[in-house]
Each structure stands twice: as structure tokens, then as C-alpha cells.
Amino acid sequence: MKKLRFLALLAMLLPCVAMAQITVNGKVTDNNQKPLSGATIKLKNKAITILSDKNGDYILSLASGKYTLSVSYLGYKTEEKTIDISSNSTLNFSLTMQSFVGDEVVVSATRASKNTATTYKNLDKAALEKNNLGQDLPYLLNQTPSVVVSSDAGAGIGYTGIRIRGSDATRINVTVNGIPLNDAESQGSFFINLPDLASSVDNIQIQRGVGTSTNGAGAFGASLNIQTTTRRDSAYAELNNTYGSYETWKNTVSVGSGLINNKFSFDGRLSRIKSDGYVDRASSNLKSFFVSGAYYGKKDILRANVFSGTEKTYQAWNGISEAQLTADRRHNDFTYDNQTDNYQQDHYQLFYTRSLSNQLVANAALHYTYGRGYYEEYKENRTLADYNIAPVVIGGTTIDKSDLVRRLWLDNDFYGVTYSLNYTPKSNLNFILGGAYNEYDGKHFDEVIWAKYANYDGSGSMRHRYNDNDAFKTDFNIFGRANYQIEKINIFADLQYRHVYYSYFGKDVAGNPAQQNATLNFFNPKAGLTYNFNERSNIYASVAVGNKEPNRRDFTDSNVNSRPKSENLTDIEAGYRTQLSNLSLGINGYAMFYKDQLINTGKLNDVGGQTRQNVPDSYRLGIEFDGRWQILNNFYWAGTATLSRNKIKEFTEYIYDEADNSLLTNTYKNTNISFSPSVIASSEIGYGIIKNGEIAFISKYVGKQHLDNTSANSRILSSFFVNDIRLSYNTAFAGVKNIGLTLLVNNVFSTLYENNGGSYSYLYGGALDRGNYYYPQATRNFLLSLNVKF
């Protein structure tokens, strides 16, 4: 086993030496034979993408065989050609200008381009489909730079998490077609509410660091810019079914009309995902649908999207103790039959894009999201007064504590408008003016639905609301961005103003419960330079400032005087990237300097709850690598690596004595930021063992992570190295475009590891106790998928 692991690690670092190849070259032009610089040339089913140079020329190195090349350029119709080569060949493309605007403009305002001084990674539909066998969207991003994913249930289905550069989901800005997905109050993104969203995604851009100006919560670790289904010219139908370990099922049906009368298109998807989970009782029952309709005019697009997801998930939120890792890794503390989370979220989006002239394109969107649901939990021996329930007198005995079941509800509405204007007066100059106004109405209320002692009649059934509070938030932003090309230098500038108003039920100056409000104003400037060596290679450097408001708990757990400050980040990025015929490579260095970053310190509020506190100075320094080498026509290697240093300059820990409420404080210098591994690496080696068949060996290494901010070695997540194997085969016959069979074997060496956890400390009678809890992940397991496309 050790030898196998050594060989797997060696494979990540030492791919085979390339062999001589046949070349295919050509030129990409428009109908007037004018060269198209920067056209995208893709080798279908091989995940090879290159760009044409300033003269429209391209060159590919391939082995002999039959290939299909797809060439696209913004504003032109995509063209495909098939070639069977046995010697050096020439294949030219002449693209026809589209008579309508392309879907790409819907998200272009918040995206980086190849000359933008921003660190980013693009994933297209084909890359996502390879691993889309039922696991949540974060797991499909696991092989991208600086990403660490986690799963409460241990198998990637249900509640999952993602961290990028050590920043959790509350610091990752997520938009779907430019519309914010992050919860307005908690600021997290919960992909469990939109199961199988990946099956309706056309492409994703991941911007690491502050990135370009976007809509929604501030990006402190990264941005995920998701674009859903775009125009497909031909009608299609697709059936996708997966079965796997832990009684995992995924059933997806997708259909589309193609382009009707060169003007209309309709697309739809229906999905179901079920799994028992690796952890005991950590089951998930997830359902979703996606419907989209579009009108394409000569100068405009009108598109409407409606999508929704429902989830019922048995709770595995608490993890397990350190002792239970060896006794029973699959243990779950919760035993109440209906200890579940239940939620539904409906999304409505309406987009209109208009080409006002050859130089000006306008884009606007209306959106509405309705979310509602609750989680139910059993509580033992609770004080009835805490639930506004009077004591019960039975046989002359007063009972003031009881076992009970409660539901904590959330009912919210999120709606608003986004817009952008793209002005290109010259080929070397581009302006974008964009922004959004959004409102959030959130209703929080809690109910006791059963108590052992609560009613005089002794029936024990009731429905008692004991907590009720509302929140309202407005979020306005406006940004302007410009790109100016001076010969080989591109200058990038981006300025954003953001205004936030938040009304919530909290504490006034005296600490009494009352409706409170906060108003915050942020200015987020960004600037950068890119130097282009040629059409395929450049270097870049940028400086960006981001600001972010505290979340709901930060507000409600404090009064006006103790309210935390907003967080501030200055992000410096510099890197080199190149795209050759068989090699793509990116190397990036970053320095992220935080002021008033909010972290857990152990400090409690007036009712004993944990609160986050500002730390004056902290930082992240790192270098990232991202590359892909097409060694042979049927053999490739892709890898990423991140080396980083993540520090808090001074950190004070608070520990309370539960016996006498005394306080112990410890001050630390230059401690490690929790959940920020100094090493993250991934590898994927793929080999075409037979025609249309591939085997891929996929590896992920994550260095040790600290569970708190004290840097104590007794409170860590151990490093882990996990390997997967993916086998895939695709074929076609009359009437069926493609039949695809994929087997994904996760954690093939059955490594015992945990990718998330936590730590708590407390004093009792002067004695200090510290404990850790963990989220164990599944040992060897599989997912087997059959995909049929018509």
C-alpha cells in the first residue's frame, strides 16, 4: 500500500516525457478574410483549447487519427470541422458573423478576460460533466487551485463546504448569471438548496482573491461566476442515471428544443438525488428542476429562467469527537427520527440584452428568490421559561424543565435588479458600467411542536411560537471598469461603490432586545497591468481593495457599542500565464492583507454564545500553480499546487469558567489562521486506453490545518492524500448521439481522513479542558453513471 501511495505521489510530480507529434495548423478569419485574433480552438472530447495569434494563425501537435475541431469567436457563429490526419496538415476556418447577440454578454460585466490582471480559472460544460455523477457542486471544483472541499455526510452529497485560499463560503462571492446567490444575512452559499445545478451550468469562472467588481457580498477569498444554460442550435434529450455506494441515486432528465425559426429556444431539466450518506443516518433526499426560454432577435435577447430545489437532510452537523474517530467513525450523535433540515428555494430570473450599436450593448435583469423551511431538533431537559412556557403543575409538583422538539424557521424573499452597459468605442478601449439594487426580507421564528411537560391536559402536543423577529436589508452597488490596450500593455481600472442598510432584531445600547439598524458604505478600487508577450502569453500585476460587512450573528450577538467593525482587504496579485498548442500554464503570487478580519476568539455574548471579534492585522501570502500538458493525443496530465503562509499578527483567546464565570485570556503572536493549509496540491492523469475510452487517476493532497487560531499541534486536522480513479467510455449508434458509461471510484486506497472539524475550550472549577471534533470522510466508494444523449 505504501508503494502504491508513493507511486501515486510520484505521478503527480513526474509525468512522462512527450513524444513527437503530427502538426495541424491553419488560420481563422471572417468572411472577408480578415484574421480573427484570439479565436478559441477546441479539440472536442480531448479538453484541449488554444487561441489564435494576432494573425489568426494556430498550430496543434497531435498523433495520427480522426479529430473534430470547434472554433468560436465572440459575435461569430461557431464552426466545426472533422479531419483525419496521418501527416502534417492545414485546416482553415472562415467564421460567419452572427445575426444576433450571444448569451455571453449576460455575465460579461462581472467576468475577467484573458488580458485582465486578475487571477482566474474557467471551467466549461465538458469539464464539469466529467465528474458530475451526483456530488454537490463544490466537489466538481476540487481540482482547481487552492480549493479544499468538505462534506458533513462524508460522501459529497448533502451539506458540503468549500474553502478557497482558506476562506470559507461566507467570503466567497457566488453569482448565477450575475445575480447574487449568497444569503444576504449569513452570507454563505448553500448549494444543497439547488441540487444538481451543475447539470444546467454552461460554464463557471472562478476568480481568486478580490477579483473584478461583482454583485452581492464582498469577495474575500474568491468569486464563483456561474452561467447557466445557453443557446443550443439543435434539439436534444438526455438521460443521466447514477447508482453508487450508500444507496446513492441520481436521476436527471434534460431536454431542449434547439433554435426554432432562428429565434426561440426552450430548455428543461428535472433531477432527483438520494443518498444514505457515509455517516450514520446522514441521509439526503434532494429534488430540483430548471426551465429556460429565450428569444433571439437580430439585436437583442430575452431570456427567462425558473429553477427550484428542495432538500430534506438528516443532520450530521456536529461531527464526532476525537475518541469516536477510532471507536466508530460513522457515529452520529443525533438519534431523534426527524432530526432533519427541510428547505425549498425558488428562483425567477428575467434577462434582456440589447445591442444599441456596434459599440454599445445594454444588459438588464430582474430576479426574485423565495426561500422557506426549518430544521427540527430534539432537546433534553430544557428550561421551559426559556421558551416562554409556564411551569406545569402535576399532582402538586411544579415542573419547570422538559424534553421538547422545536422547529427553527426561516421564510425569506430576495429580489432586485442588475444592469450593465458595455461600451467599446475603439478596438483597444472598453468601458463597462454596471451595478445592482437588491432587497431582502427575512422572517425568523421558532416553535415548540412537542413537549413532554407543557400542557395541563397532559397530551404533550402543542405548537407554540416562542421567538419571532424580522430582518430587512438593502444592497446597492455601482461600478465602472475600463480596459485600455497600448500596443502590448493592457491597463485595467475598476471602481465600485457599495451601500448596505440592515435592519434586524438585536440589542440596544442598554442591552435590551429591540429592532436595530446599521448603514455601511464601501469603496472598492482595483487596478492592474498586463503585458502581452504575444497572443498566447502574458504577465500581469494588480492591486484590489475589498470591504465586507459583518454577518447576521455578528450584529445580533452584540449591542450598538460592541458591534464588530467591517472587514477590509488589500489584495496584491502577480502572475504569468501561457496557452500553447499542447500546454497551458499559470503561475500566480498573491499577498492578501486584512484589517479587522472577523474570527472566533472564544469570547461570549451576554447569553453565553460564541461571538466573532475583529483582529487588527492578518495576512495570507502564497504562490499558485495551474497547468495542463497534453503529452500525447491520448495522454494528458493536469496539476495544481499552492504554497502559502497564513498568519494573525496578534490573537487573544478567551476561555470562561462555567463554575464561577471567571475569565482566562491567552495572547499569541504570529499564529496560523485556522483552516488554512500551507500546502494544497492536485493532479489528474488521463490515458485513452481504447478508442473513446479513458482512465484517469485523480489525486488531492491537503496539508495540515489548525482547528483554531492558537497554532497548537493538539488541535489540528491532519494532512491527507486521497486518490480516485475514473473510467469512462463513450460510443454512438443510429438514433443515439452518445452513450456514456462512467465509473468513479473515490478514495481508492481507503485512506482514513477528515477534511473539516472544530475545537472548543472551557474551564470548570479552574480546570482547563480542550476538545476537538471532526467530520470523517468515506473510505473506498463508487459512483456508476449511464448517460444517454439523443
Automatic annotation (TrEMBL):
Organism lineage: Bacteria, Pseudomonadati, Bacteroidota, Sphingobacteriia, Sphingobacteriales
Signal peptide: 1-20
Single GO MF descriptor: siderophore uptake transmembrane transporter activity
Domain TonB-dependent receptor plug: 115-222
Keyword Signal attached: yes
Name of the protein this chain belongs to: TonB-dependent receptor
Intracellular or extracellular location(s): Cell outer membrane
Residues annotated as domain TonB-dependent receptor-like beta-barrel: 312-739
Cellular component aspect of the GO annotation: cell outer membrane
Entries under InterPro entries matching the protein: Beta-barrel_TonB, Beta-barrel_TonB_sf, CarboxyPept-like_regulatory, Plug_dom, Plug_dom_sf, TonB-dep_rcpt-like
Keywords: Cell outer membrane, Ion transport, Iron, Iron transport, Membrane, Receptor, Signal, TonB box, Transmembrane, Transmembrane beta strand, Transport
Membrane-topology annotation of the record: Multi-pass membrane protein
Residues in coiled coil: none
PANTHER family cross-referenced by the UniProt entry: FERRICHROME IRON RECEPTOR-RELATED, FERRICHROME OUTER MEMBRANE TRANSPORTER_PHAGE RECEPTOR
This protein's record includes keyword Cell inner membrane: no
Source taxon at top rank: Bacteria
PROSITE patterns linked to this entry: TONB_DEPENDENT_REC_3 (PS52016)
Taxonomic source organism: Pedobacter polaris
Protein family according to the UniProt entry: Belongs to the TonB-dependent receptor family.
Major location (coarse): membrane
